[in-house]
Amino acid sequence: MLELLQYGFMQRAFIAGILIALLCAVIGVFLVLRRMSLLGDGLAHISFGGIAAGMFFGVYPLLSALAFSVLAAIGIQKLKSMKVYGDAAIAIFFSFGLSMGVVLVSLSHGFKADLFSYLFGSILAVSGTDILLILAVGIATLVALLLFYKELFYMTFDEDSARASGIPVERLNAMLVVLTAITVVLSMRIVGILLVSSFLVIPASIALLICRSFRNTIGVAALIGVASVITGLTLAYYFDLATGGAIVLTLVGGFAVVLLYKKLSPRLTPRT
User: Fold this and answer.
1) What is the rounded (10 degree) CA torsion for 211, 216, 220, 222?
2) CA nearest 34: which of 183, 140, 169, 196?
3) Smallest Cα–Cα separation from 62: which of 3, 114, 9, 1?
């Protein structure tokens, strides 16, 4: 393990991966419990258009993707307020972002290699600028979640009662969607656009199988996310694997083990 840390690019990879794992764990628990798991996948594909636009117009791709995804998140909430079903609203913006990215890629032949790294992740290419952006925006996102933790907790389990008690449900829903968009964009450098939703959903799903309290679920999800980053990066380094894929496969393997244990544990428990 110490051998890995002697390289600067591995140090940056571990730092960025752990920061993103913590952020995704917190957001992911809210999304899974509120049956919004597909939102992360939708926003990831929407951000493809922002990445392509940034490369096409010479703007830092993560910033353009961030702006694009946040605007799309606000648009999704606006469509939902106009009685458009949530999954339909996501699909509409999903289609727009993906088609825009495809058109911009067809108009330019100079950034296909760079675009590939955003599609599948390139954690080993994370720069100091990327880490500073992840740290600054990640801290702001976590602070926002902490400030409205009680309200979000109430909404997660009983939205109607939360609305009746005077909690601004629509505004907090919009905030959660925007924070998800930010998290998705920051995670793209780690696991890529095509895998980012799994980084949001799987740690939370594993933690929900293990824990009974909400706080413990968030903590365990964070630990699982961090462990998957460390394990995935180590496996990728020693076996020459794609880092994003190694991290996600580690998560899937962990989910399978926990699920199998939960299924077999009643049979393994001795009868009295």
Assistant:
1) 140
2) 169
3) 114
Instruction: Specify the pLDDT at position 204.
Output: 94
**pLDDT band at 1; cut points 50, 70, 90:** low
124, exposed or middle or buried, with CB in 10 Å at 0-12, 13-18, 19+? middle
Could you give the dihedral angle defined by the CA atoms of residues 105, 106, 107 and 111, in that order, rounded to the nearest 10 degrees? 40
The C-alpha atoms of residue 88 and residue 120 are separated, in whole angstroms, by 26
Cα separations in angstroms, 146 against 119, 152, 216? 31, 9, 15
Tokens of 70: 């946040």
CA-to-CA distance for 48 and 222, rounded, in angstroms?
Answer: 26
Residue 50 to residues 36, 102, 118, 137, 226, Cα–Cα distance (Å):
22, 11, 11, 18, 28
Task: Give dist(CA 248, CA 237) in Å, integer.
Answer: 15
- All domains of the chain in start order, with CATH: 4-261 (1.10.3470.10)
| DSSP string for residues in 29-73 | HHHHHTT-HHHHHHHHHHHHHHHHHHHHHT--HHHHHHHHHHHHH
Share of the chain above pLDDT 70, in %: 94
Q: Please tell me the distance from the alpha carbon of residue 158 to that of residue 228, in angstroms, as a whole number.
A: 32
Q: Where is average pLDDT lowest: 71-75, 114-118, 174-178?
A: 114-118
DSSP label at 270? Answer: P
Please, where are the H alpha helices in 108-168? 112-120, 128-147, 149-157, 159-164
C-alpha 49/C-alpha 149 separation (Å) is 32
Place of tokens 């949530």: 86
- 25-71 pLDDT, tens digit each: 899 999 999 888 888 888 888 888 888 888 888 888 888 888 889 99
